[in-house]
Specification:
alpha/beta, five-stranded parallel β-sheet, 27% strand, globular
């Protein structure tokens, strides 16, 4: 028993939904596209799970956050897929893939063949057992990766009102879940081995402000240590947490957010794996020309920094999905995937965005206070490579994004800290498409009040010279034609 499709998307997360929408916009025919997902529901926006889904009042529930509402686009409900002739194979696990034969075998024994395969398998949450700690199966130990996890956590929150929660991990999931637990009137203690929260991105100064706010909300932090074991009652429910530093914490609920691992096992030995993900080129195409990978599972070239990266964020999932479909449907018209790494979060009254790479020397700016706008720049080898902004307007966020992509030179970091956001605004305002006009060769553009020096691009002269030459050729052709008519 088997079915055949032109295009198959393996995985039903965010990337799958955005890929499906892009396929329809590029003219996929009815019956050509199939999405296979282990989850029993159509693709949805995962960020909602750690935010709106956990609210105590009017929580978000499907179908309100099906893709692609996260990008203010169409809501792709099961009805939408049916109307567009897209086959949804839900609640189905694929147990093997034969890349050479272009077939997938489901756990039910069905064979599905394809012409093009898009791998959108995402990643799975790392479990405590992988670090030698038993107890993940206890009813009040929760992870958060998919809808079933979110339902389990929501039920645990409801039964733990006014109780004690221990959050293991200080990254995205830890910080966002801690905020949701506080809103649900649960006492929260966060435990993580790093010196401060969001250690892969935040500087100590940035982290300190957020941690102080969380403390004001009643959250306690225990840093520099890890969980070693649980204590259980007679019903095998966790009642306490034991830490490596000797601390013992009472617990009615435990939320674990200690990282993820890409789901690549089906393709190991068949496709090239790099940095934990499936290696793809700038068209999101793997080492097999008929197989593409998108989202958390893909390791792709970040053109801006000239290296391969695997990024774990919804924005990358959305944009890589669109690009892969474009490359499949219109390969001749699709350029390189020129992605600027982007991360964001919204917790309590805070809303921050980061663009680029958090490496090099850090320069902070703004007023580091609740309700104020503040941020940081990362400078590497004399150029801006990363930008962080809290409390900005949409226009200001767009400005730091554009400035980071331009990688302007920075010669005075002290001045950079003083001018702050004005630097990015100046960089962007002075980066205009040059007109064909006479420009003094020695003219220099001064950016951000003595911070950046940048010479006018020589392509202004190239363009001007080209126009002059073209005009001369046209004039000669006109004169020569008239002379020939006289002869």
């Amino acid at each position: 028993m088997g079915r055949a499709f032109v295009y198959v998307i393996l995985g039903g997360g965010v990337a799958a939904g955005y890929a499906a929408l892009e396929f329809t916009r590029r003219g996929v025919s009815e019956g050509e596209l199939c999405i296979i997902s282990e989850e029993p529901v159509a693709p949805y926006e995962r960020p909602a799970l750690s935010k709106g889904f956990l609210l105590p009042e009017s929580p978000a529930r499907l179908p309100s956050f099906h893709t692609c509402v996260g990008a203010n686009d169409e809501k792709l409900t099961p009805k939408w897929y049916k109307e567009h002739g897209i086959e949804l194979v839900l609640g189905t696990r694929v147990k093997s893939v034969d890349v050479r034969r272009k077939t997938l075998l489901s756990s039910t024994g069905e064979t599905i063949s394809y012409k093009f395969l898009i791998i959108a398998t995402g990643a799975r949450a790392l479990k405590l057992e992988e670090f030698g700690v038993e107890g993940s199966d206890a009813e009040n130990v929760c992870y958060l990766r998919d809808l079933s996890d979110a339902n389990r956590l929501a039920n645990a929150i409801e039964s733990s009102a006014n109780g004690n929660a221990v959050v293991i991990g200080g990254g995205y999931i830890g910080m966002e879940c801690a905020a949701s637990l506080v809103i649900n009137k649960i006492n929260v203690t966060m435990v993580f081995p790093e010196a401060h929260c969001m250690a892969r991105l935040f500087t100590p100064k940035i982290a300190s402000l957020y941690e102080d706010y969380y403390r004001a909300k009643g959250v306690e932090f225990i840093k520099g240590t890890v969980l070693t074991s649980f204590e259980f009652d007679s019903d095998k429910k966790v009642t306490g947490v034991n830490l490596k530093d000797g601390n013992h914490l009472p617990a009615d609920l435990v939320v674990v957010g200690i990282g993820i691992r890409p789901n690549t096992s089906l393709f190991e030995g068949q496709l090239t794996i790099e940095k934990g993900g499936i290696k793809v080129n700038s068209k999101m195409q793997s080492s097999d020309s008929s197989v593409y990978a998108i989202g958390d599972v893909a390791t792709f070239p970040v053109k801006l920094f000239g290296e391969m990266r695997r990024l774990e964020h919804v924005d990358s999932a959305r944009k890589s999905a669109r690009h892969a479909v474009s490359a499949i449907m219109e390969p001749e018209k699709t350029g390189e995937f020129d992605y600027l790494p982007f991360f964001y979060s919204r917790v309590f009254a805070f809303s921050w965005q980061f663009y680029g790479d958090p490496v090099g020397e850090v320069v902070h700016f703004g007023e580091f206070e609740e309700g104020k706008t503040f941020g940081a720049y990362w400078i590497k080898k004399g150029h801006l490579v990363g930008s962080f902004l809290e409390g900005g307007s949409q226009e200001e966020y767009e400005t730091i994004s554009k400035a980071t992509r331009l990688k302007p030179a920075v010669t005075d970091v002290e001045e950079l800290g003083r001018v702050g956001l004005e630097f990015a605004q100046t960089v962007v305002s002075q980066h205009v498409v040059p007109e064909v006009k006479e420009v003094p060769r020695s003219e220099l553009v001064r950016q951000a009040s003595r911070v950046v020096m940048m010479e006018k691009p020589l392509y202004v002269w190239h363009a001007a010279t080209g126009v002059i030459v073209a005009a001369s050729v046209a004039a000669f052709a006109f004169w020569y034609g008239r002379r020939r008519r006289r002869w």
